[in-house]
Amino acid sequence: MGLVVAGAALIDMHNRLKVLRAERDWSQAVLAERLGVSRQTVNALETGRYDPSLPLAFKIARIFEQPIESIFSDEGALP
Amino acid sequence: MTVEITTRRPVWQKILGIAVLAGLGGLCGYALADFGRDTVSRWDDELAMLMSVCLIAMGLISAGVMATRPSEVPRGCGLLQIAVLLLAGVMFALPVFGTRFASPDLIFVGIVALLIVQSVANLMLWRAADEMLRRVMAETSALAFWALQTALFVYAAAERLGLVEGITAWGMTGILMGVYLFASMVAAARRGIT
User: Fold this and answer.
1) Smallest Cβ distance to A49: which of B71, B73, B191?
2) What confidence tens digit (pLDDT) does each residue in B9-36 have?
3) Does A3 touch chain B (CB under 8 A)?
4) Measured between CB atoms, does A43 come within 8 Å of chain B?
5) Which residue segments constitute the domains of chain A, with CATH numbers given?
6) In a domain, B18, yes or no
7) How far is B179 from chain A (nearest CA, A)?
8) What does the angle CA B118 – CA B72 – CA B60 come to, to the nearest 5 degrees?
């Protein structure tokens, strides 16, 4: 999962993209086309190598018809 | 429920593929060394040739990947990346080999023209890229800048103190491209692009 250094806090981002995609039986290419990004970007999102921008996170939430916080979480983030 | 079907190639096919690629690599290296026997004698020219070969090879490999795994999104990015890499490779070779075929003035005009085309292609690539590719490009630039400005300062200080010899702008350009390519590999690998 992506590890972001923000000030003194380490934020470990998690997401449920792979599960949500599998539930809909979509390939990475299909999701990439819906999002307007490359397949590599979808792969990087799913493997936690890349955290999306806010506009992309909103787009993902709209496509899966779920609130952002049910898809992305920052478990373990320090206050 | 999804079923993943993985098709693994037999080991002998992999070994054969590696052997064929190694053979092709050897032939290309020999041909290049033979072609540049009389022209490439300085270390900065040798470095420029290495960069040129790397850039052209990356362009051709990208073209092969694009042909076998076509992708519509982001539109046009693949072609632009290939164009940028191939143009950069040609531009690195022209100052060394170009004078075999035309006058230095004409070669220089050609290089400037190619540079303009490549700069436009780079700009189009930035505009067409998705956010992660832009991030990779930005990280590559930042990483390369940090490494190069540190190295340049150390070298410049040593040169000013008379500890090392001066270096040509052509040599510096080759080093810059080498560092940039390495930085791009690091930035891409961090995002799982290999």
Assistant:
1) B191
2) 788 888 888 888 888 888 877 777 777 7
3) no
4) yes
5) 3-73 (1.10.260.40)
6) no
7) 23
8) 45
